[in-house]
Amino acid sequence: MKILGVILDEGLNSLAHLNYIRGKITRILNRLTIARGRRGLSDKVLKVLYQRALERILLYAAPAWWAGTCRQRDRMTSIQRQVMLAITGAFRTTSTAALHVISGIIPSTLVCEMEVAIFHLKHRQSHLSFLGEEITGPDLEVYHNTWIHPSARARVQWDKNHPSSSLSIYTDGSKIDGKVGAAFHVIEGNSTVDFQFRLEDHNSVFQAELSALHQALIWKNANRHLQTCDIFTDSMSALKVLQKHQPRNNLVEEVKAIIDESVSLHWVKAHIGIEGNESVDKAAK
């Protein structure tokens, strides 16, 4: 029985599915081998095609059928071995371990276990052990899809202007020596104040930039809710992702949920001597 591209047999051991996948990959591989001889496809091209296409076919819906049994591992290794022989042009007597070294391809069983582990982290378990390392839920960014009517989605606009206003906020995020930080710098009249935040070491600079924007908006809504405000950032990627209709990122959704018409977003170039931007850059480090 075939459901959504996965063959289910009576024993639920996935061997029928792997046999189906082996036939599919073999047919594609035969055509690629012919193209290699007639069209001059290089080893690098074949490797890219495997990693971008054939490996995806091999690992499709792996969390639904992978159990890590010896028979599954042998079948997966056998399928991948055919591909590595075609890529390297090695003799058929070459050991599988040597083929992995020559081709630079990660064993499919290892990649399969990694994808299953990520799936369980996202949907089932709060933590698990993978290759002797403990992986916890907070180490992985998980998107919880919440449907919002298109008319209710805020349209975020930004520009490259640098207006003067009674309330200006500069935001920044940084990652130095594995340490991640975020900060925002508030300028109101003649007074200034810095707010700094420490993030987890596994967070990226992009996440730090978004966190700085998020915290700045939270502060503004709590302390200067009705006052117009200009927020400046040197992260164009953060501004562009805020314009996406469905960003599929929890932090982006949270930023868009609390931004209102009293806030104007602006992009500023980094390290050109703008006082507020230089101050927040130091605060984020």
TrEMBL record:
PROSITE patterns, sorted: RNASE_H_1 (PS50879)
Lineage of producing organism: Eukaryota, Metazoa, Ecdysozoa, Arthropoda, Chelicerata
Gene Ontology molecular function: nucleic acid binding; RNA-DNA hybrid ribonuclease activity
Name under which the protein is recorded: RNase H type-1 domain-containing protein
Organism (species): Araneus ventricosus (Orbweaver spider)
Residue span, RNase H type-1 domain: 163-285
InterPro entries: RNase_H-like, RNaseH-like_sf, RNaseH_domain, RNaseH_sf
